[in-house]
């Protein structure tokens, strides 16, 4: 298929590269020039990238970035044609997603929200999971593209529902990781180090995919960004906004948001969200230590 891929960040670049490797004809665009993907054509604007593409696929930071790419100056809307499809793998507001879909639907363009889970490793290895909202006919056409970049997709309902489910997923990741970080901090302060804790965690019902993914990085104290703290903070805020609109109370997430705010004040926003641990360590006056599990 002919795909325009817009946004070559931690996630977008390997996704576009996997599309090329699977034999798709890919045109890429990134806001900051100089990023490219081997085997793909580079366009000068989203509008230029979108010309002739069957699918226009976005993976940028946040709601405003998606709006800019689609509807801003030299945005996709300037060259959008009937029959094209927009797929958004950014994690953004569900209500804004429905509005964006509405804006392009009048011109005969289908819109699918397909946020992902699997992080940097999943994007690089082509094992992402797509959390999809949109018409079944549109999703059917996207199957070869999901197969090239991921291992599974789940349709959550109509447009916007993919984003709803994605926020519900990241809510859990933020809380699970916070539990893990608090447990390691308490144990360390009381004299049980992380390498002693890890085999116990892994053998018990406490184990989780989040911990399995994060533990090696934490134990090596590698807080370089897989999923930057600023993006998890954005997702926590999106979940709290959606909860407010729906009159749902999320007290644990509200508390975790404060930790992300403080971690941001400490200058950790471009580190991985695992760096929230360092705040707990600072308060406890202890460092979590242990050889990598
Ligand atoms: P990233 O590395 O920070 O890349 C962000 C991308 O968005 C860059 O290409 C950036 O362009 C572009 N961008 C930012 N603001 C823009 C704007 N106003 N107009 C146009 N382009 C703009 O982020 P990422 O990790 O790839 O994440 C992308 C999306 O996937 C986010 O919504 C994130 O929440 C979601 N996600 C990430 C992960 C993960 O583990 N990293 C996992 C699941 C979902 P520049 O190069 O010019 O800055």
Name its key features.
51% helix, binds NADP nicotinamide-adenine-dinucleotide phosphate, 293 residues, 12 helices, six-stranded parallel beta sheet, alpha/beta, single chain
**Spatial arrangement of strands, main beta sheet:** 3-2-1-4-5-6
Number of strands: 9
Task: Determine the structural class based on helices, strands and strand pairing.
Answer: alpha/beta
* Pattern of helices and strands: EHEEHEHEHEEHEHEHHHHHH
Q: Describe the biggest sheet?
A: 6 strands, parallel
Return residue spans where pLDDT drops below 50 for at least 5 consecutive residues.
none
What are the bound molecules?
Answer: NADP nicotinamide-adenine-dinucleotide phosphate
Model description:
The chain has 293 residues and is an alpha/beta fold. Helices cover 51% and strands 14% of the residues. It is built from twelve helices and nine strands. The protein has helices at residues 12-21, 46-50, 63-71, 94-105, 119-125, 136-149, 161-189, 194-203, 209-219, 229-245, 251-265, 276-284, and strands spanning 2-6, 25-29, 41-42, 55-58, 85-88, 110-113, 116-117, 128-133, 150-157. The strands form two sheets. Strands 3-2-1-4-5-6 form a six-stranded parallel beta sheet, with helices on both faces. A three-stranded mixed beta sheet has the order 7-8-9. Helix 3 (63-71) links the parallel strand 4 and strand 5. The radius of gyration is 20 Å and the shape is elongated. It starts with a strand and ends in a 9-residue tail after the last helix. The model has no long low-confidence stretch (mean pLDDT 97). It binds NADP nicotinamide-adenine-dinucleotide phosphate (NAP). NADP nicotinamide-adenine-dinucleotide phosphate is lined by residues 7-12, 30-32, 59-61, 64-65, 68-69, 90-91, 116-117, 119-120, 226-228, 231, 235. NADP nicotinamide-adenine-dinucleotide phosphate binds next to helix 3, strand 7, helix 5 and helix 10.
């Amino acid at each position: 298929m002919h795909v325009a891929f817009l946004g070559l960040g931690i996630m977008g670049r390997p996704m576009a590269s996997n599309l090329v490797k699977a034999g798709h004809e890919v045109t890429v665009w990134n806001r900051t020039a100089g990023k490219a993907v081997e085997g793909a054509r580079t366009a000068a604007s989203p509008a230029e990238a979108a010309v002739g593409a069957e699918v226009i696929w976005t993976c940028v930071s946040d709601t405003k970035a998606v709006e800019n790419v689609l509807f801003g100056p030299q945005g996709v809307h300037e060259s959008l044609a009937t029959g094209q499809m927009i797929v958004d793998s950014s994690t953004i507001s569900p209500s804004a997603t429905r509005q964006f879909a509405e804006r392009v639907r009048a011109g005969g363009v289908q819109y699918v929200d397909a946020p992902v889970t699997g992080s940097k490793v999943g994007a690089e290895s082509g094992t992402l999971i797509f959390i999809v909202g949109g018409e079944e006919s549109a999703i059917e056409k996207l199957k070869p593209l999901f197969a090239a970049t991921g291992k599974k997709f789940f349709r959550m309902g109509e447009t916007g529902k993919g984003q709803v489910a994605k926020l519900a997923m990241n809510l859990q990741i933020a809380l699970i990781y916070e539990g893990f970080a608090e447990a390691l901090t308490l144990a360390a302060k009381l004299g049980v180090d992380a390498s002693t804790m890890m085999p116990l965690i892994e053998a018990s019902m406490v184990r989780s995919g989040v911990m399995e993914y994060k533990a090696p990085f934490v134990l090596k104290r590698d807080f370089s960004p897989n999923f930057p703290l600023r993006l998890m903070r954005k997702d926590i805020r999106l979940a709290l906004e959606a909860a407010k609109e729906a009159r749902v109370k999320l007290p644990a997430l509200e508390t975790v948001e404060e930790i992300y705010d403080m971690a941001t004040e400490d200058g950790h926003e471009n580190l991985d969200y695992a760096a929230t641990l360092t705040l707990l360590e600072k308060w406890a006056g202890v460092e979590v230590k242990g050889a990598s599990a």
